[in-house]
Amino acid sequence: MAKNVWKKETAEKRIATRLNEVSTIEIKDYVRDTDLHSLPRAKAYRVDGVHLYVDILNLGTMLQSTDVEGVTCQKRTLRFLNLHQRAVHRILGAVDAIKVDFHNQRLHAVIAKPYGDEEGRVHRAIAIGQLIIDVLAETGEDGDEYIPAADIRIGIDSGKALAVRNGRRGSTEPLFLGEPANHAAKRAGGGTATGIFLTNKARAAIALDEVNDEDGTALEPDEVTTSQDKADLPITATAVLRDWRKDLEANPISAFAFSGHTPPYANMDLELLSPGNSRRNDAISIYADIDGFTAYVAQHIDDDDTAKDVVRVLHVLRSEMDAVLTEDFGGRKIRFVGDCVHGVLVEGTAQTTDMEASASAAILCAGGLRSSFSTALDCLEAEDIDVAGLGLAIGFDAGPTAITRLGMKGAMIRCATGRNVLASEHEQKRCDGDETALGSVAYGWCTAAGQAIFGSSRKRSGLDYQTALDELADKGDPTAKAARVAKASLISISLLEPATAAPSAFRFPPRDATPTKPAGFA
User: Which class in CATH covers the domain with range 31-249?
Assistant: First the structure.
């Protein structure tokens, strides 16, 4: 692995391998009790269901609970998340919902039952949402390290989505692609008011009036009560809290303990992490989101042939982003969040981060991600796969980053948290499909060359790898200069590799070649 070096030829080889893995795709309609957690890579299910997104609004407040982002506020934040994740895990299991993902403060779940009854599913989703609100209102802790209850905002939408397997190498979950997942997430992230927010499509399914402002119109208490009565869930908040407290007594959350990881992050085994064995470095958090993918899925989901291409496109793009981050730049993917990858990278030692080198590596990595994305689109188009309308929005920021795994034993989830994680997602969201942005802390880490690339707006369009490498190296950035030398060395090595042996020269066969007489002739 040549660190901080991206090569088109290497990317093309990886992409060809990934395409071969999904050369044959099977699209099926979801049927009763299909196990979506063990989907083969080459199979996808079309699921008609209700999507529920839960956003914990006061995570940022936890990270800001101390003036300096030291270990105290991060330990509090991780315990805060761990307590709430364990409670929600118990709820979803009791109500037979599909847990898709719990990424830091954000939960995605799908309600597929009752089958063939959209109205019943929406009522059930509302009842589950209110149960989560009621339970998490009681799952804080008093004491020396006060942990508050969670402030909850919930978004709900209904419709068809495509379920595929998300992730590789032991970190797989179902992933749902399509408008209902995206719109539910937007309602959950659409404001700072707590409550349950439905799209007009979900409202229509339960005969509620359409509203002008979906993000500003929470369900009224009597509307929630109606849904609770119709859903008649098999569990109450009191029962969940009782079992949750018993579980905490029997399986207490370990005290969080941090140690620094010696770079690169690529060699960190995330599956060995736990609260008592967590990592913490000053590092870069990167979000790279496939822009336009929700509309792309909506255009292709109904036809089997085009739905197969959706699976191919997603597999190739996510896999290549993971490879760029890990193999080319020594970073580490934390999670795929829908069509977005979240990763971290750092330069330096376990004790001391080289801030300038880390920022420069992040700029080069962002360029590599964009170059690989463009290369992948070209390769997909060469296979007659439609990729029109897709782009890549990238954001990153820097700061103390805690990395661990949270949740129930046997079902622990990777987590990287810090103020920079929230900030990097914010930076990504202010980009369109051709832009890269960095936060104010990462900007301060940059060399003068790095700051010149982004300017006062801290945003740049069209920043591919070669552009980033040239602009940094030409202005004397040490990390880019070293990467340029490494890249030149790799090119020289490839040119010096032995050529394929030429075909052997024409030779007479090793036998007597004197004239012979055909049998029967004198």
Answer: alpha beta
